[in-house]
Amino acid sequence: MFDNFDFSNFWEESVYSRKEYISDPPSDELIASVEQELGYKLPASYIWLMKQHNGGIPFNTCFPVSKPTSWADNHIAITGIFGIGREKAYSLCGELGSQFMIDEWGYPAVGVAICDCPSAGHDMVFLDYRECGPDGEPKVVYIDQEYNYKITPLADNFEEFIRGLVNEEDFYS
Known Pfam families for this protein (predicted)? Predict the structure, then answer.
């Protein structure tokens, strides 16, 4: 998992990320409890990454796309990655987590919201379980509220999504 991927400069460490995103590494019991609450089995690559660093803000926050979104013509941007837990606002079962985005913002129930975006709720990144079912390996999609909840495929799995994140300077230099 994540063979030859260097995580040494992956995460941005800040007071904000510690306050809103980062939790202690999840126990197996917490993972099972969160999966039960969400109704989906989390991908092994996501669990592995959260056991190393449970949520946070990565340095590379952009993912290239081939069709325009409400954010940009050639990429989407994320703010942070939700950790496994309940106590941080931006965690899977937190105050502003996955179910909140579905219930309060009207996002389609395709799976689990895993990343928020700079638009403050107007677009999100989800694990998409529509093809694989609740116990399968989900794809990663971008859902754009501003475009009538249009779903844009990003990656075939979570690891591919993480490997595909690039720095915003790649688009603005």
Answer: SUKH_6
